[in-house]
Amino acid sequence: MEMDARKTVILQAIIRNYLETGEPVGSRTISKDTDLNLSSATIRNEMADLEEMGYIEQPHTSAGRIPTDKGYRFYVDTMMEAKDREMSEMKDVLLERQDRLEDMLRSVVKLLAQDTKYGAMITAPSTHSNKLKFIQLSRVDTAHLLAVIVIEGNVIRNRILTTQEELDEETVLKLNMLLNTQLSGVPISEINLSMIAAMKQQAGIHSGVIGEVIDAVAEAISEEDLQVYTSGATNILRYPELADNEKASQLINTFEEKALLGDLLTPEGTEGESETGIQVYIGSETKVQGMQDCSVVTASYELGDGLRGTIGIVGPKRMDYDKVVGTLKQLRTKLDDLYRNG
Amino acid sequence: MEMDARKTVILQAIIRNYLETGEPVGSRTISKDTDLNLSSATIRNEMADLEEMGYIEQPHTSAGRIPTDKGYRFYVDTMMEAKDREMSEMKDVLLERQDRLEDMLRSVVKLLAQDTKYGAMITAPSTHSNKLKFIQLSRVDTAHLLAVIVIEGNVIRNRILTTQEELDEETVLKLNMLLNTQLSGVPISEINLSMIAAMKQQAGIHSGVIGEVIDAVAEAISEEDLQVYTSGATNILRYPELADNEKASQLINTFEEKALLGDLLTPEGTEGESETGIQVYIGSETKVQGMQDCSVVTASYELGDGLRGTIGIVGPKRMDYDKVVGTLKQLRTKLDDLYRNG
DNA sequence: GTTAGCACTCTATCTCAATGAGTGCTAACA
DNA sequence: TGTTAGCACTCATTGAGATAGAGTGCTAAC
Questions:
Q1: Mean local confidence (pLDDT), A150-178
Q2: Bases along strand D below 7 A from a protein CB
Q3: Nearest nucleotide (C1') to the CA of residue B24?
Q4: What is the pLDDT of residues A46-93, one digit of tens each?
Q5: What is the CATH number of the domain that holds A293?
Q6: What is the pLDDT at residue A284?
Q7: Which of A122-131, A324-333, B228-237, B301-310 has the lowest mean pLDDT?
Q8: Whether residues A297 and A262 fall in one domain
């Protein structure tokens, strides 16, 4: 059985209709909805073929048809028309919040959830493979040092260190000089043992502190590495197919436990559509346990100086792919532009 | 109608039973459960009295009785026996995470939710009415300054400032000196306009920067002031009386929008039980919209150096008050101890 | 290849009766 | 006067038909 033009039109009509209504679609509906001028009986024949090919299925005998994962996939790959959608408020947010990355992400993800009516998530741009800009040690009191670590892209991490030895202001100044001469501009991934050893040697009797600082740098960076912001978890309760207690609980929980979303939001290699930066995972295609009844659309974004993050939308399999993909495309370029010009 | 000993016993039995089962309690059940040796008919008479007094009600004729808000209130005020409950894992968390306040709070709130099976929330200790420890300005590049603000209790805030004028290292050093001499040890609430004016004057041509730094200090402190961590939002789906789509959606949403929880978690004056630091809000007693079907138990805690925060548990009105109050009492003292000894 | 017609299937909805838990009231009892 | 047995009554819940309606697959005619 091969896919011809007419079958494509019919499949498209079925999916479009199902996306709108969420109800199984019958042959009569299609007969009237399309301008093929075919009777319902003819549509029925075609539908039987489409079912045999695995694009649609019946929830039960004597019900209309609903798309299968394969059907959605076909739709997304060949029939989708991503609408370029402006989110008016988004612009303001992007302009205002430029100074506080965290706030900006929170606002973006919230607006995204409100606008799409699906669950939204966004990762803070990853700092991996980026350069240390500078390190600032300050004496807090006799036993504590404050280490402020600034990474290319003005990402700031700080940590309080408990020192074994008492350090006076002068020593702290020296250590600052040493650390910055050695580490400024060095990609984090390139800090290796021999560099550390060299610094420890130069630090002389204070080598212990150097070790602690380096540890703190490593920890500060790796620990908060994948920060995920989410919004609109409760939106999934809007969709009856996800709203039963069992599923909803698991899904909302996954949103709460942001760590579980990591797999979704860390792009792995370049697959299919990834030249556009947008990926669609339908039902069982997802990598995350307990999301088999959902679809996930992710988009990568980049903040000018090499900081990369990912945006994700989680909704029912019958989500409005056109709208979601369009919105993400738009947002993606907005974010890219923003920091290129900012 | 006055409350006598027997009525108290019966009311207690009704509430205890209802807390366990969640089902309306009938007269026969009470007749057998208590050791009063009364027939169900007698119990019925007493129940009619209790209903008239407003402590219990019937969901419909020919159903058993369930406690009213007033009934719960009576229970909590006079009949509750808070069990001192150890949470074994909690100890480890408190010991391990001492260094990273944020992580500690996240772990605590998560364990609390898991242990109680209710929704849990905790505020980061408030920095209000605390003293500035020191301010550190550093030059990031020609146009940007990094301001690190450390508050008593080692709470750190940082901010990147865009400066109008170019500043060399020396100037930054001077500004640092100036800021710290003037502001170190000063309670945040006492920074006023005349102090700022004085500093600006001393800063001479760099007075603009001083203004920006002060703004940043104010902003940094006020903005993230009430940081709320939550966990276990989905636990409310366990309780049928809260699990219908309408209510559940609103409740989980409130959890997501942590800002809305602020009212719950900012103690206002000293009411009823507050000498123990524990407050119980039953049903309509709550201050937050959309939580009329819940009860909320809050406990204040203090981290040694005057930092105060609040822990909250949200559950159905038929929550296990004994357990929750016991757990919070325990946790509260654990937290207090921790930083006193740490 | 397309269509009208028809029997068939299955879900959803409604009604109706039966069940059972629990009550309130009355009259008898200690 | 407080307690209890007994009984009629109420009302939510449950399950069993009965019914309607949507939609299909198949056949035969166009």
A1: 80
A2: 3-6, 9-12, 21-27
A3: C22
A4: 999 999 999 999 999 889 999 999 999 999 999 998 887 778 777 777
A5: 3.30.450.40
A6: 93
A7: A122-131
A8: yes
Residue B310 reports pLDDT greater than 80? yes
Q: Is B136 on the interface with A (CB under 8 A)?
A: yes
DSSP secondary structure letters along B192-244: -HHHHHHHHHHHGGGHHHHHHHHHHHHHHHHHTSS-EEEE-GGGGGGSGGG-S
- On whether both B230 and B337 belong to a single domain, the answer is yes
Is A48 near strand D, with its CB below 7 A from some atom of it?
yes
- Sheet arrangement for strand A144-151: A132-141, A144-151, A155-162
- Domain count of the fold of chain A: 3
Name the DSSP class of A127.
-
pLDDT tier at B272, thresholds 50, 70, 90: very low
Identify all chain A residues contacting B134, using CB atoms and an 8 Å cutoff: 138, 140
pLDDT-derived band at A266, boundaries 50, 70, 90: confident
Which residues lie across from B161 on neighbouring strands?
A: B145
**Of B117, B139, B53, B305, nearest in space to A154 by CA:** B139
Domain match, B236 and B327 both = yes
The CATH number linked to B46 is: 1.10.10.10
Query: pLDDT tens digit string along B214-228?
Result: 777 777 665 556 789
Measured between beta carbons, which residues in chain A are less than 8 angstroms from residue B185? Answer: none
Helix runs in chain B, H state only: 5-21, 27-33, 40-52, 69-74, 88-96, 101-116, 169-183, 193-203, 207-223, 245-256, 262-265, 321-341
CA atoms within 13 A on the CB side of B292: 4
Q: What type of residue is A100? A: R
Q: Based on the domain organization, do B263 and B199 belong to the same domain? A: no
Neighbouring-strand partners of residue B139: B145
Is the pLDDT at B88 greater than 90, yes or no?
A: no
Q: Which residues from B are below 8 Å from A185, CB to CB?
A: none
In a domain, B16, yes or no: yes
Nearest to B237 among A99, A156, A245 (CB): A245
The pairing of strands A56-57 and A144-151 is unpaired
CATH number of the domain at B208, please: 3.30.390.60
Question: Which DSSP symbol is given to B258?
Answer: G
Same domain? For A242 and A335 the reply is: yes
Top mean pLDDT of A288-292, B101-105, B153-157 is at A288-292
What's the pLDDT band for A168 if we cut at 50, 70, 90? confident
| Beta-carbon count within 10 A of B336 CB | 16
Are residue A245 and residue A108 in the same domain, yes or no? yes
Mean pLDDT over the full length of chain B: 85
Q: Residue B251 sits in which domain range?
A: 94-124+226-341
